[in-house]
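Thread: Newbie trying to understand structure tokens

Hi all, I'm a second-year student working on a class project, and my supervisor (Dr. K.) asked me to get a predicted structure for one chain before our next meeting. I've only ever worked with sequences, so writing a 3D structure as a token string is new to me. If someone could post the tokens and maybe explain what I'm looking at, I'd be very grateful. Here's the chain:
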Amino acid sequence: MIELTILSPDGRVLRRLELTGERSIRIGRAKGCDVRLAHPMISREHAEIGPNREGQWRIRDLGSTHGTIVNAARIREMLITPGLEVRIGPIRLQFDNLASRIGAELDRLLDEDESRSGKVDVEIVGLSRTKSAPMDETIVHDA
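---
Reply by user tm_fold:
Sure, no problem. This is what the structure looks like when written as tokens:
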């Protein structure tokens, strides 16, 4: 599953959206847009993200003034693949595999926790019990 991360010009995460279903996502300044980005370089209806007939997601420019940019080039339409980065005005749209992003975030958090305390506490919601363990111990819980 692909996830869209919307990033501010300074790299802050503004919003994350999973690309699911058949409904398109319209991006722009207008009140009717699904994702509203209030910036003068962003058109009222700037771009649209949606699935094609084969179920692949794509991004399409809606005739914006300043364009939808990939690798410093204006695009009209493009298939979305994990790793794709698109610019709309000063805003970055980053597309990633959701499972990969969550895995990388967990790795980062576990590394931080281990470096602070020498052990890692992991809680998985939905398990009937939890346990702390040193990093060299593998724990498997039956639900």
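A couple of things are worth pointing out once you decode it. Confidence is low (pLDDT under 50) at residues 127-143. The radius of gyration is 20 Å. Feel free to ask follow-ups in this thread.
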